[in-house]
Task: inverse folding
């Protein structure tokens, strides 16, 4: 018996990016999209084209690069949004516009301040206009989980008639329990049978995003919207890796269903996104967490030695995890071997970018005894943030003593000119950042600072992530990488400033975040 394919709609680049601190630049988004295509997702929601020129540019470039997945842009039920979405994905081989409007009584009354018939009229207009750009239109009933089922049927009839082929029912605030989601999906899938696919988009506010998605599949949903590592607003979204592996491992229950996902690309995808966003999955996160395949209990270890199936229902290799996770390359390794390893780690770089990364790898190999996969991920990701480099750290000198005042001298290059200045601070990091402020003339306010060891050993790379607000604008993320933690910190701060300057004049054009 032929299995039904559950479409995997990945919204890491749109909803996932709305996680606090998860902003990505265009080059990073392109790399993630390429990896999502390798993973086998059916639809990549590349962003919200009307949000900013930067978002439009990223979607447009992704649309030109991706060949096997459908590229989708989100759009509010507003002509300008729909037009931006249509133009951004125009060159995609397979394209979709995803438009939406709220349908719950509380949203219609207090947020939209519209009557139900006005909401339907707006929805129909958006779908009809979207059809002038693409054949594949998805319509979402925002806050469907708290919407009246009668109204969901009424608006679904209208948008299907207007040309929508997918009806998405988001549990926008993660409020519903699995049996409630199941009942709603069952009724709606039977009602729209033969006319449209029912999709679900479950948030994780009560920790039920994955459970609700699986229940929806059992009751007629044939598309699930999800993110890598469960990224997303507030408590995040249903995690792609958990949904897919639940379908695979429990094929006895989900015997009639399958996906196009290549599960061996799950771990590389998770690591790529964690490295780019600086947001690591919690250690005990299902499937991709650091401890997901760790066994400390003596009883567990004994069982594992006798038969791994005693305590493992998933093999690490099933998700593409190499438990040694060691890159057997060194300073004598060639460019061909390095390029091959980059491909296995999920990077798709042009020759110029490969050459830059290879040069950095050679420098690292001279200083570090053992190089791990995560070292390479961090190194290449760090190089991607330099695509719009305006300022560059040349050197850093620290003067700190137990009885003295912490101070730092920094040399920065801009447009071929090198400028040196120094500053004192409340601590060493504070002094470094203030020296950078003095040279660049931009006053940054540090909102968050994180440093972690990329791999193991005394010579491990320090990966620093900062969140900095400049001129009162929304905070920008910066990444810095070096064996020297202070130098990595300076690079992270400069990276945030460079990203801010590359987006200058665009941030104010960004509309309010969209939550489905």
Result:
């Amino acid at each position: 018996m032929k299995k039904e394919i559950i479409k995997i709609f990945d919204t890491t680049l749109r909803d996932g990016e709305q996680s606090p601190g998860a902003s990505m630049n265009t080059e990073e988004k392109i790399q993630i999209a390429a990896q999502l295509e390798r993973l086998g997702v059916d639809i990549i929601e590349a962003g919200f084209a009307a949000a900013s020129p930067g978002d439009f540019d990223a979607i447009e470039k992704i649309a030109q690069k991706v060949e096997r997945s459908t590229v989708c842009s989100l759009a509010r039920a507003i002509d300008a949004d729909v037009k931006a979405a249509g133009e951004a994905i125009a060159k995609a081989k397979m394209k979709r516009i995803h438009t939406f409007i709220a349908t719950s009584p509380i949203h219609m009354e207090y947020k939209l301040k519209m009557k139900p018939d006005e909401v339907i009229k707006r929805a129909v207009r958006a779908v009809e206009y979207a059809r002038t750009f693409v054949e594949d239109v998805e319509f979402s009933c925002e806050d469907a989980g708290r919407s009246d089922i009668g109204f969901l049927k009424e608006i679904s009839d209208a948008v299907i008639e207007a040309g929508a082929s997918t009806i998405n029912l988001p549990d926008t605030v993660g409020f519903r329990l699995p049996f409630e989601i199941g009942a709603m999906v069952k009724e709606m899938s039977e009602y729209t049978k033969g006319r449209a696919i029912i999709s679900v988009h479950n948030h994780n506010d009560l920790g039920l995003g994955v459970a609700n998605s699986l229940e929806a599949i059992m009751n007629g949903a044939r598309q699930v919207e999800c993110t890598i590592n469960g990224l997303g607003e507030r408590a995040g979204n249903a995690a792609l890796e958990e949904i897919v592996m639940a379908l695979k491992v429990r094929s006895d229950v989900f015997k009639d269903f399958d996906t196009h996902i290549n599960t061996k690309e799950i771990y590389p995808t998770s690591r790529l996104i964690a490295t780019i966003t600086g947001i690591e999955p919690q250690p005990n996160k299902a499937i991709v967490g650091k401890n997901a395949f760790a066994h400390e209990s003596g009883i567990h270890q004994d069982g594992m030695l006798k038969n791994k199936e005693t305590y493992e229902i998933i093999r690490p290799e099933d998700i593409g995890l190499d438990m040694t996770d060691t890159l057997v390359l060194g300073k004598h390794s060639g460019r061909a071997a390095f390029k091959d390893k980059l491909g296995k780690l999920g990077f798709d770089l042009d020759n110029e970018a490969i050459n830059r990364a290879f040069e950095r790898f050679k420098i690292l190999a001279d200083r570090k005894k053992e190089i791990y996969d995560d070292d390479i991920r961090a190194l290449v990701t760090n190089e991607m943030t330099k695509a719009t480099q305006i300022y560059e750290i040349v050197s850093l000198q620290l003067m700190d003593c137990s009885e003295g005042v912490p101070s730092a001298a920094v040399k920065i290059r801009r447009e071929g000119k090198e400028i040196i200045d120094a500053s004192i601070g409340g601590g060493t990091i504070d002094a470094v950042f203030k020296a950078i402020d003095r040279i660049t003339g931009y006053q940054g306010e540090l909102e968050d600072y994180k440093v972690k060891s990329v791999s193991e050993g005394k010579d491990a790379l320090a990966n620093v992530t900062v969140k900095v607000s400049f001129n009162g604008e929304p905070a920008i993320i910066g990444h810095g990488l070096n064996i020297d933690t202070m130098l990595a910190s300076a690079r992270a701060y400069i990276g945030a400033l460079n990203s801010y300057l590359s987006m200058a004049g665009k941030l104010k054009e960004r509309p309010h975040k969209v939550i489905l």
The mean pLDDT is 88.
